Amino acid sequence: MDTSQKLNQIPSATNIIALCRLNRPTGIWLLLAPCLWSLSLANDGFPSIWYILLFTIGSVLMRSAGCVYNDIVDRNLDKYVERTKSRPLACADVSVIQAWGIIALLSLTSCIILLQFPTTTIALGIGALALVATYPWMKRITYWPQAFLGLTFNWGALMGWSAVKNQIEPPALWLYAAGITWTLIYDTIYAHQDKQDDILVGIKSTALKLGPRTKPFIFCCATTMIICLGIAVWDAGIGINRYVVPGFLFIAAHLFWQCWTVDLYDPEDCLAKFKANQWLGLLILVIILIGRY
Q1: Is 87 helix (H, G, I), strand (E, B) or coil?
Q2: How far, in Å, CA of 136 to CA of 140, rounded?
């Protein structure tokens, strides 16, 4: 079947799943985790199940929309990168018009979800669109697109807090900072998978910027993340106790294990360490819940 025939067909479920990265759920959890951290930290009791459900659905929808938009922007670059050349837009299994239609549907549903929250959260949700729209272009402009991803992916730390308090307070900002440094760790590791292809097509990343200095950098990010997370937890009213201290030791151990053992010249190991962060996100959530309740 030639390209024109493929693009005249309705995209298959397989192509839609691949386009939205629903077959790769790690990214959904990395987007959802800061929302749940903040939601749990802001509550005096157990977080609202309704809000947990809304944030979960919203994270699936917005991560999917972000992936589709990213693929639209990168479709002419993805075909030259080994890891991305089989994406539906890169190999013309889905048309750009069809992809925009999928974004419209995802965005409309996300809007319905967003309207269930307080006004501050709604305003923050609208503000996040600027970050989502900007991020895919950053890899063409700066060697620090991972920093912009951190700003985008951890916006939920602000939204989760505002959903409970209807305002932004210092613990949410510290949690946001912790999330940004976390993203710098896992996405810099992730970027090392593609560094040879990125050089060929002119894509910038922290992996290329830092090169052999990557490990000292991610160690510094890990230390900063632990400090910011500790301040957020303390400022939210969770004191030092027999549950929180061991929990933070586990967080530190997991972070430093990643930084120390990752083989930046082995794409498979980089991917494995990237995926390990979904467990770190869950660990942080459990520690916040135990420390609070």
Answers
A1: coil
A2: 8
Q: How many CB atoms lie within 10 A of CB 213?
A: 10
Is residue 159 within 8 A of residue 127, CB to CB? The reply is no
Structure tokens at 137: 């272009």
Contacts of 203 (CB under 8 A, 6+ apart): 77, 81, 139, 140, 194, 197
Query: What residue type is 44 in one-letter code?
Result: D
DSSP, collapsed to helix, strand or coil, labels residue 51 as helix
DSSP state of 212: G
Dist. CA 105–CA 115, nearest whole Å: 16
Q: Give the model confidence (pLDDT) of 186-220 as tens digits.
A: 999 999 998 888 887 888 999 999 999 999 999 99
To the nearest whole percent, how much of the chain has pLDDT over 90? 72
Burial class of residue 242 (count of CB atoms within 10 Å of its CB; 0-12, 13-18, 19+): exposed
pLDDT at 90 over 90: no
